Known about the structure:
By secondary structure, the protein is of the alpha+beta class.
Amino acid sequence: MALEITTLAERPEFAPALWTMDHTWPEFMLNDPLADLFYPFTDTTYAGYVLVADDDAEPGRPVARACMIPYRSEAAELPDDGWDGVIRLGWLARERGQSPNGISALEISVRRDQQGKGLSSVMLGAMRDHAARLGFTELVAPVRPNRKHLEPRTPMSEYAWRTREDGLPHDAWLRVHVRAGGKIVKVAPRSMVVAGTLAEWRSWTGLPFDRPGDVEVPGALAPVRCHPGEDHAVYVEPNVWVSHPLT
């Protein structure tokens, strides 16, 4: 398979298929309200920061996408609100006409039938290269460890720093980042916040959400806190900040 990776700005014809691509994201993950400050503008404002990939076997049909957002921050540390935070900072910079001084990865998605072929690491390398071409000296990423959902009650502060005997991260996706040159910096304790009524959570997960307390949801990195008396439940997802120096 020979991949061609370009930006959405270079190949705008990909836009419709890119967002209907068969993926494995849990439904509740698609309901973070901060996403509305980025995804509706990917084929216009942020088209130069979205990478698309197809192969010679099916030219014109996307096999993967990778999204980044430029942002501006004067803080010394990466934000505790991770994914939500960089989207908000990116939006504010654009609205205020400020020049960005940072760029963050937001996601890499691989079409379901193409998973397990190493495409995520290829797209990560393409993101690093593209950020460097744009003049940035660092790409940061609020990483969602891909095996953490198997341990939803383990604190991320413990999970993120767990290593194998060879010193590499225990988590496979964190391991890919470190092998690519990334460095684990800190935990983003509230990287994504998804709140909904009990009816919404039932529709997203198929679970009853009828008792107070923590609910373990398939695909979630931490339990969802259910409040039946107030008719809502809230998911606060921790991520792991990884820094990729580009020079």
